[in-house]
Structures are given as structure tokens and as C-alpha cells.
Specification:
This protein is α+β, with helices and mostly antiparallel strands. The protein has 25 helices and 18 strands.
């Protein structure tokens, strides 16, 4: 059977080795015979999953247009190696994405004993999941078996529900058809016009509903008309919301878009739009004349532009992960020397031109010391000075923080233009160290209403263009110079526009609930398809559905970090371990090396073995007859707008919904903290089942030790109170028994002395901070500052506490404290401390369980927030226990849209 489908076209021909178009029965049988005869492990579960800790490059936090947040960088005394020439090393030290470019002899062996990349490339692998991670105790049954059984049970339930929904909808359609036929004969054409779904099917639902892509305006396709199932923003009069009013004079009503009638044309995002543009970073201030870049011992005089670039590197000498990276050094040196040549060259003190040829001869220490001193000076400001500076900054930025969207005030998310600097990138980015140029108004396109007043650009400048695109939700746009990416100023996460976007995402995953049974049935059938393209597609959908792999896209390997997804997996990224374990090891999202060891269905294992069959070798594609576009196009046959990424949201939300339903019987007689832990256990299980893992944070152990010390501190407090009871009523020793008054086993004398010193120092610090704060208030109010002698008097309380502890240690007795001490009062205090200890033990167990699981990733991005709201209501737990203030603002629509629906289900 032949096919002229584009699905038969290979994605690439890295080494010229591609799979045959058809898989013969003989090949299938031969592969079956070669498969190991040992029993297969339970399929569908990830054994070990998460990022690999290599610590080679500093990884920045996600950057927004206006605010780029980076991890803190501690100063280091380690000398900076300015030598650009890297030492020779073998292939193992190269980035994963670059190995395919090396010329190696093809691996012609068809053996399953692949060498995992983990064995070739060093790095700390993510840990295996443990029973405690899902709130279960250890027993003889392997955790993989338990998880596989749970996952299979959830998928079986999903298939049953999908079938029931489909049956119900068919009956409803049939009934509707019968009612229509009583009036007149329905023509097919009229039917197609009325239901509005044929057009969506015809276009395969590939077009996005919003024009917020990173493509330039000229390339943007007009947004398609939505199917009208989702409630969206309307230009009709705003309904009065039930949300709380702000305390400010200009209290704004909450726009309840979820209650508003839907628009006929969902592609129109606004009718009127007014905003004040963007905030530019301050202009560069030249270095003092005595601060110079030194080249081979000679102080240099540079142009303003070149000096600013030199300052970028000089200011970050303490970030050794970057400045010692040869690629970072090379890219910086190239851009810097080009700027020097372009702006008149570098001069010595006599005005002679100095030729800069070697990076290793540059000395940035003088520049670093200058900027470091400025940073220290900034940190040393008083609280009053910091508040004053912040107030001035807030006043300057206030006009840019909001816009008028259809007459409503909406928060703008990222109105600051990113300042110039050196590009860091993620992972092993090939452009790290290049200069991010200053963005000028001439590069910025403003999107605003036709009748609105256009923001005034800085003096002497003009905007690149003014647009009035009401199908776009961005306010301003420009193209950055590093990767040519388009940057957008968008509304804040808590805005109604972003809320509607989140709502559509979760509603789309709810829609998938109807079709998941048929999708799984079809791809399980196609795992044995004769056409290689069909078999590869089925295998890819299996991996995306079961293990939350991203679909993946092609990259420009010369200019972008080569990141990998399912459809772009290479030969070297997949290791097969009989009988049915597969190891994925590749650079994933954000160029972070990702390791995933999974147990797959035996047929999937067989297929991957077939897709790796000789003569394929390193550099060849696994799915050489499949692209992400083809995969998503196939998925839209089941449901308009369905793409690979919807599976992640669906699986996380449906799994969470199923797990929460099982908790109904457990909600009685539980404390708030115990209920929170129940929720977190479910969230953790979702993260494990859906592969949302993370590396253990560098500060986790220190945090756990701090919590353990706090618990021990409460126990010490209890012991002292018990000693006070003995002090006022010695006969209680016979009543309660001697053991009750003994020191807890985990508190030894050395720890007690250390803890007492901590308590004394803590009291001193509190007194000093309060003294400083009170003085600042006095100065602000025009009063005189308190004298240092007054502080000394206040500190006597800490000295008295120190003396008290010394006396107790010597006499082995604790005198009763407080007014009118009684045994009853002390026992009441002991009970309160018992509750605090129990709560802290739960928090410690929760934190320990979360150390390797990205609960936030699941809760914020993939689990429908309405599930959390329902749990909060049913279990009578304040929503603040699950959502921070920022998340409560982001998910206002979820909290308020189902406030009267106790029986809401995903």
C-alpha cells in the first residue's frame, strides 16, 4: 500500500540514514524474535526523571521585557581566568547537542546494550521516586508497580468517562435531529452553516486564537473566529463584580468577564485601547577619569559606547560561571573589539592608538572595584532612603503601570524596556557573552486605539511605527539583536485578558476529556501500523501522552541552543534497556539537560528499537518521518485546536481531579495543616505521574536543618515549662512521673548551650533593629534621635537573659516566669506548643517530600485552578493556604466563577 501523504516525507537526513516507508511482516517478526524473553516491567511509569545537575553554566531566571531577574551571585575570591583558549578534551566534555556534528564511524550494531549518555557525560542524575513522595509507607511492593497500577486505573476511568460523554452527546444530537425533522427536511449545507464546526475541521484548527506570536506583524495571519464555546471579554457595559474594592479613592470594580455574554467575533480583543508606552532604562553614565580598562598594563581611553560594553564585563567579574566560560569570553571580545574599531579605537594617555588583539591581556579589576563599591553603597542606604528612592521610582512609573482597555483600567505586565548588557542565555547557548544592544524608540512599534493619544517618545526620537491592531493583545513590540526574537509588552498575569487565555487553555483540556478514549485506542492500534509514518506518529503520541514529553521543534543549531523534544529526538538521545526500559537524555526546554528513565509498552520498545536500526547512528533522527506540524495537524482531526501540549494540562488536571475525589472520606477531624498536606500529597503524586520533577535546591538541606532546630527549640521551651511546674509544685513529679520531666533525647547539653546563645543574640538583634526603626521614624517626624546610651539600657534585657541561662545551667533548676504562675497556665502553654510542634513536623515532612518535585509547575501551569478552589471549599481550608496573593489575583476568575458551584468537576 503506497501513500503520497506528506507524513511520508522525512524530517531531515542528518547522515543520510532514514527509515523505510513500510515495515514488512518479516521485519516485525524478526524484531519480535530479537526481543528479550524476560518479563516486562509495568509500563507507563517514569523511574527516574528530571534535570541533570552539571553546574557548568549559570542559568538565568525567565526574563520579561522590562525586568530581567537573575539568580543572586555571591562574590568570590577565585581569580578570573582570562585565557580564551580552552584545554583540549575528549568528546565527553562537549555539549550533547554538538556531538552529532563530530565525524564518527556509524554504529552498525543492532544490540540493545546501548551505552546511556549518562555514562558518557558526567552529571548528577535525578533521584528515583520514593513511596514517601506520594504519602505512602515503604513496603515490599515496588513503587513503580504501585504507580503503574494507579495510572492504569486513572486511564481506564478516563476512557469510561469519555465513552459515556460521547454516548450522551450522540443521543442529544439524535434527539435534536428528530425535533428538527418534524418541522422541515434539513439540507446538509444548512446544517454545515448552522453548527459552525465544519470550517474549524477544514482548517484543522491549527491557527492560534490570538495574534501574540513572535512573528513580525507583516507575517501574522488574521486570527480565526472562535467556536463560541468560551466566555470572553465583551465591549458591553461592565457588570458589577462581587470582588472587594480597593481602599484607594479610585476603587475599581472587578470585571467579571466570565459572567459577561460571549462575543460574536472572538478574534477582536478590544474596541478602545489607551496606554502610555514604555519606560526606557537610564542613559549610561561615564566612568570617573581614574577608572580605566587596562590592556597589557596600559590604561585605555575609550569611546562612550565601547566603555559601556567594557563596563558590562567588568561589573560581573564575580560571576565566574559566565566570565570564565570560553564561549562567553570569545563572543564578548568579538563584539567589544568591533565596537572599539567602529568608534575611533582605543587610546593611551598620550593619545596613541592601542591595538587590542588578545583577551587575556585585558584587566577589568578597576572597573569591577568601582561598580562593586557603588553596589555596596546602595545596600548601605538607610531604610528611609530606600523608601524614598522607591517612592520616587513608583511615582515615575505610575503612568505606565496601567492602561485603559475598553474603558477599564488593566494592569500592564512588563512596561520596562530591558537595559543593555551581556547576553547570558540558558544551558550552553552559543551566543552567550554577546552584547545586548540598547533598544531605542526607533525600534519600537506601538499598538494603540485609533482614537487614543499616541505616547510621546523621548525627546529627539520617534517610534518605528504606530499600529491599531485590535486582534492583538500586545501594547508595544521590538526585535532584540541577539536571536532576532520579538519582545512584547503585554498585560499583567492578573489582567482579564490573561485570565481569559488561562480559562481557554483549561477549557480546551476539559474538552479533550471527551476524546481521550478514542485517541488512546487509535494510537495503541497504530503502534503496529504497516506505514512507518503512522507507526512513528503513534509512538510519539504515546510518549507525549504517557510521559509528558514536549513535541519539540527544529532549531537553527548555529545561532540557537539546540533543544530537543519528542519529534526531534536523535539516535544518541535514546538508550534502550531490555526488556522495556527507555532512557531519554537530551537538552530540553531552556537548554537544560534532561534525563528521563521510563518503562514503556513492549510494542513501543520494539518500535524505538526499529527506529534506531542500523545503518542509523549518532546524528540521525529517531522520528525521521514525522514533524511537530504533522503531529499537531493529525491531532486536530479529533478536536479543533488540539495540540501535543494540551495533553500535559489534561493529564495533570484529570489526575488531580481523580485523586481529590478519593479524599472525600478523609476530611473529618483533620487540622488545617493536615488537610493542606493531603492536598500537597495529591499535587505531588500528579507531579510524579506527569513527570514534573526538579533538582534539589542548593539551600534545601540548610532549610531542613533550620526547621529541625526550630522544632528542637519548641521542645526545649516545653522542657523549661515543665521545670517551672516542678519549681512551683514539686509534688507533680510523683503525679506525672519522672520521665515526663526528663530532657528529650534529641536535646543534648552542647545543643542547649548553642541554642541559648542563639536566643540571647536573637533578642539583641531585635532590640537593635527596633531602636534603629524608631530613630528613623523620629527623624522623619522632625524629632531628635535617641542616644546610644538608651540602646545600651534596652540591651540589658538580653544581658539579663544570658545571666538567667547561666544560672539555670549551674543550678539545674528553672524558676517560674510570668505573673501569677500556675500549673494550669503552664499546661495550657504546653498544649499550644504540642500543636505547634505537630504543625511544624507536618510542614517539614511536606517540604522534604517536595524537594525533588516541582509542585509549583503543576499547580500554576497544568492543574486547573478551579480544582484547588473546590478542594478549599469542600475541606474548609482558606484559599490563601494554596495560592499566594499573586496567584489569587491571577486566578480570580477561577475563585469567583465557581463560588456557588460546590459540585464543579473537571
Amino acid at each position: 500500500m503506497s501513500s503520497d501523504s506528506e507524513d511520508d516525507m522525512p524530517l531531515s537526513r542528518s547522515n543520510g540514514h532514514i527509515s523505510k516507508a513500510h515495515i514488512s511482516t518479516a521485519t516485525d517478526r524478526a524484531m519480535d524474535k530479537a526481543t528479550a524473553t524476560s518479563a516486562d516491567a509495568p509500563a507507563g511509569i517514569s523511574i527516574r526523571n528530571g534535570p541533570v545537575v552539571e553546574d557548568k553554566m549559570e542559568v538565568d531566571e525567565p526574563a520579561t521585557n522590562g525586568t530581567t531577574k537573575r539568580k543572586s551571585r555571591g562574590s568570590t575570591s577565585k581569580a578570573v581566568n582570562y585565557n580564551m583558549a580552552s584545554s583540549e578534551s575528549d568528546d565527553d566534555a562537549k555539549p550533547l547537542a554538538k556531538r552529532q556534528k563530530t565525524s564518527k564511524k556509524p554504529v552498525l550494531s543492532d544490540s540493545d546494550d546501548d551505552m546511556p549518555l549518562a555514562a558518557k557525560k558526567p552529571g548528577k542524575l535525578p533521584p528515583k521516586a520514593k513511596p514517601v513522595d506520594i504519602g505512602e509507607s515503604s513496603d515490599d511492593e515496588p513503587l513503580t508497580n504501585k504507580l503503574a497500577e494507579k495510572k492504569a486505573s486513572i486511564e481506564k476511568k478516563a476512557a469510561k468517562e469519555a465513552k459515556a460523554i460521547q454516548t450522551k452527546e450522540k443521543k442529544a444530537k439524535k434527539l435534536m435531529k428528530q425535533e428538527d425533522s418534524d418541522d422541515e427536511d434539513v439540507k446538509p449545507k444548512a446544517k454545515r452553516r448552522s453548527n459552525g464546526t465544519a470550517t474549524a475541521k477544514k482548517t484543522n484548527g491549527v491557527k492560534k486564537e490570538e495574534s501574540d506570536s513572535d512573528a513580525p506583524l507583516a507575517k501574522m495571519a488574521p486570527a480565526k473566529k472562535a467556536n463560541g464555546k468560551v466566555k470572553t471579554e465583551t465591549a458591553s457595559p461592565v457588570k458589577k463584580g462581587k470582588g472587594k474594592k480597593d481602599e484607594s479613592e479610585e476603587a475599581e470594580e472587578v470585571y467579571r468577564w466570565w459572567d459577561a455574554p460571549k462575543k460574536e467575533d472572538d478574534s477582536i480583543k478590544w474596541d478602545t485601547l489607551q496606554h502610555n508606552g514604555v519606560v526606557f532604562p537610564p542613559e549610561y553614565e561615564r566612568l570617573p577619569k581614574n577608572v580605566k580598562l587596562i590592556y597589557d598594563g596600559t590604561p585605555l581611553t575609550l569611546s562612550v559606547e565601547a566603555e559601556e560594553i567594557a563596563g558590562f564585563f567588568g561589573a560581573m567579574l564575580n560571576s565566574t560561571h559566565n566570565v570564565e566560560n570560553p564561549t562567553f569570553q570569545k563572543n564578548f571580545f568579538t563584539d567589544f573589539t568591533e565596537e572599539v574599531k567602529k568608534t575611533g579605537g582605543a587610546k593611551d594617555k598620550d593619545g596613541n592608538t592601542v591595538s587590542i588583539k588578545e583577551f587575556s591581556k585585558l584587566d577589568f579589576k578597576s572597573i569591577f572595584n568601582y561598580y562593586d563599591a557603588k553596589n555596596q553603597e546602595k545596600k548601605a542606604r538607610s531604610t528611609a532612603e530606600k523608601k524614598a528612592d522607591k517612592a520616587a521610582k513608583d511615582e515615575l512609573e505610575a503612568p505606565y503601570m496601567t492602561c485603559l482597555w475598553d474603558g477599564r483600567k488593566e494592569q500592564v505586565g512588563n512596561f520596562r524596556v530591558e537595559p543593555p548588557g551581556l547576553f547570558r542565555g540558558r544551558g550552553e547557548h552559543p551566543k552567550t557573552g554577546k552584547v545586548k544592544r540598547r533598544v531605542t524608540p526607533e525600534q519600537i512599534t506601538i499598538n494603540i486605539g485609533k482614537e487614543a493619544t499616541v505616547p510621546t517618545p523621548p525627546e529627539g526620537h520617534k517610534w518605528k511605527a504606530i499600529q491599531h491592531d485590535n486582534k492583538a493583545t500586545w501594547l508595544a513590540m521590538w526585535q532584540e539583536n541577539i536571536n532576532g526574537a520579538y519582545k512584547y509588552v503585554m498585560l499583567a498575569a492578573k489582567s482579564s485578558v490573561k485570565g481569559q487565555s488561562d480559562y481557554k487553555k483549561f477549557e480546551k483540556s476539559r474538552e479533550l476529556k471527551k476524546h481521550i478514549g478514542r485517541i488512546r485506542k487509535d494510537y495503541e492500534r497504530d503502534l503496529k501500523a504497516e506505514l512507518t509514518a503512522d507507526r512513528q506518529r503513534a509512538t510519539a503520541v504515546y510518549l507525549i501522552d504517557k510521559f509528558a514529553l514536549r513535541a519539540g521543534n527544529e532549531k537553527d543549531a548555529e545561532n540557537e541552543a539546540e533543544t530537543v523534544g519528542c519529534c526531534s529526538l536523535k539516535f544518541e538521545h535514546v538508550t534502550l534497556k531490555p526488556p522495556n526500559t527507555v532512557v531519554f537524555d537530551f537538552l530540553g526546554k531552556d537548554s537544560i539537560r534532561f534525563y528521563d528513565e521510563v518503562v514503556v509498552h513492549p510494542q513501543v520498545f520494539k518500535n524505538l528499537k526499529l527506529f534506531k536500526k542500523a545503518p542509523k547512528s549518532e546524528g540521525d533522527d529517531i522520528f525521521d518521518r514525522l514533524t511537530t506540524t504533522q503531529l499537531n495537524k493529525h491531532l486536530t482531526n479529533y478536536m479543533p485546536g488540539l495540540s501535543a501540549k494540551v495533553f500535559r494540562t489534561y493529564n495533570a488536571s484529570y489526575t488531580m481531579s481523580t485523586l481529590l475525589q478519593k479524599l472525600e472520606s478523609k476530611k473529618k477531624n483533620l487540622s488545617i495543616q493536615e488537610k493542606v498536606k493531603l492536598y500537597n500529597d495529591c499535587n505531588r503524586e500528579v507531579a510524579i505521574l506527569c513527570n514534573h520533577k526538579r533538582t534539589v535546591g542548593a539551600g534545601h538541606e540548610a532549610q531542613m536543618e533550620k526547621m529541625a532546630d526550630r522544632i528542637k527549640g519548641l521542645k526545649y521551651q516545653q522542657w523549661r515549662i515543665k521545670q517551672m511546674i516542678l519549681n512551683i509544685e514539686p509534688k507533680q513529679k510523683k503525679v506525672k512521673g519522672g520521665e515526663w520531666f526528663e530532657l528529650p533525647e534529641d536535646l543534648d547539653e552542647a545543643w542547649i548551650l548553642e541554642h541559648q546563645a542563639f536566643l540571647v543574640q536573637e533578642q539583641r538583634t531585635k532590640i537593635e533593629k527596633k531602636f534603629q526603626k524608631d530613630n528613623e521614624k523620629r527623624v522623619a517626624g522632625g524629632e531628635k534621635e535617641m542616644k546610644v546610651s538608651e540602646l545600651k539600657e534596652l540591651l540589658e534585657a538580653a544581658d539579663d537573659l544570658e545571666k538567667k541561662f547561666k544560672k539555670e545551667n549551674k543550678s539545674k533548676r528553672v524558676e517560674a516566669e510570668g505573673k501569677g504562675p500556675t500549673v494550669e497556665k503552664f499546661e495550657a502553654n504546653l498544649k499550644k506548643l504540642d500543636e505547634r510542634i505537630a504543625t511544624m513536623n507536618l510542614q517539614a515532612a511536606d517540604r522534604e517530600g517536595n524537594k525533588e518535585v516541582a509542585l509549583g509547575t503543576s499547580k500554576i501551569n497544568y492543574i486547573d485552578p478551579r480544582l484547588t478552589v473546590v478542594f478549599s471549599k469542600k475541606f474548609d481550608v482558606p484559599i490563601e493556604k494554596f495560592f499566594s496573593k499573586t496567584l489569587r489575583e491571577k486566578f480570580t476568575w477561577a475563585i469567583e466563577s465557581i463560588e456557588d458551584e460546590d459540585d464543579w468537576e473537571f
